[in-house]
Automatic annotation (TrEMBL):
Entry coiled-coil feature ranges: none
SUPFAM superfamilies linked to this entry: MOP-like, P-loop containing nucleoside triphosphate hydrolases
Record-stated family: Belongs to the ABC transporter superfamily. Spermidine/putrescine importer (TC 3.A.1.11.1) family.
UniProt domain ABC transporter: residue ranges: 1-187
GO molecular function: ABC-type polyamine transporter activity; ATP binding; ATP hydrolysis activity
tRNA-binding keyword on record: no
Enzyme class, UniProt record, top EC level: translocase
One matching Pfam family: ABC_tran
Biological classification of the source: Bacteria, Pseudomonadati, Pseudomonadota, Gammaproteobacteria, Enterobacterales
NCBIfam families reported for this sequence: potA (TIGR01187), PRK11607.1 (NF008621)
Subunit structure: The complex is composed of two ATP-binding proteins (PotA), two transmembrane proteins (PotB and PotC) and a solute-binding protein (PotD).
Name listed for the protein in its UniProt record: Spermidine/putrescine import ATP-binding protein PotA
Keywords noted in UniProt: ATP-binding, Cell inner membrane, Cell membrane, Membrane, Nucleotide-binding, Translocase, Transport
InterPro entries, sorted: ABC_SmlMolc_Importer, ABC_transporter-like_ATP-bd, ABC_transporter-like_CS, Mo/tungstate-bd_C_term_dom, P-loop_NTPase, PotA-like, Transp-assoc_OB_typ2
Amino acid sequence: MLAGFEQPTQGQIVLDGQDLSHVPPYQRPINMMFQSYALFPHMTVEQNIAFGLKQDKLPANEIKSRVAEMLTLVHMQEFAKRKPHQLSGGQRQRVALARSLAKRPKLLLLDEPMGALDKKLRDRMQLEVVDILERVGATCVMVTHDQEEAMTMAGRIAIMNRGKFVQIGEPEEIYEHPNSRFSAEFIGSVNVFEGVLKERLDDALVIDSPGLRHPLKVDSDASVVDGVPVFVALRPEKVMLCEQVPEDGCNFAVGEVVHIAYLGDLSIYHVKLHSGQMLTAQLQNGHRYRKGMPTWGDEVQLCWDADSCVVLGN
């Protein structure tokens, strides 16, 4: 619908104060960059970048100036005469981005632009693309199934489920304050406890959860109805190992380590609680040698603060 190939059944599509709902695609100030980049194989880099400008019949000197500007922007000046098959994946991506920006669109659409790149190059290009878009001041809408990519590149994220937006917000808001179980589980890893309200304090809720031996304290003023099931989210990195039961009202649970995923900078512990529920804890590997750290089969005590939990909406 943004590009103009589908018509909205209701509402408007407004860009910079202009209603585009019935404007044909070729007249919209919108460009799109595809996952495949769709570069013309018989054209050089500079010819690819100039293609849209020539279609618009811009003066030759204006085309030359904009192509030079785009080549400088994406650091591809020395590759101007090369053809796409002579470029690396990251270089082809920069050319496709330059071609998309050459017409100075008011809105740029990106369709999973990093999908064809390997992880290291993808991580580098995410930051590079964000830097380029900030320098030209372009508004961008990007579709991606990579949650980490969305968190890295976006100023605002919209999570969709079955064709509807379920939450819109900044990356930190989406991650730390999910409004539903779907949002919490879609972005990152999360532990979810189900329970019912036991007690309402001044600034906290006490939840009885069958997955925990002890009531769960949550810093929240959410409207929770007595007797109605409630879900509480807890991110793995908020969970800590504790040597003894905390006395400061901190939440805690006891269980057995059933699996450890060592990822270098951190380790992910999968702990089976006495109730049978699984709890995931993510711990930083701050030292080269992991002496004293729990291993498979060890019984561990886990604790987390009341403000680390989030009550999820239904």
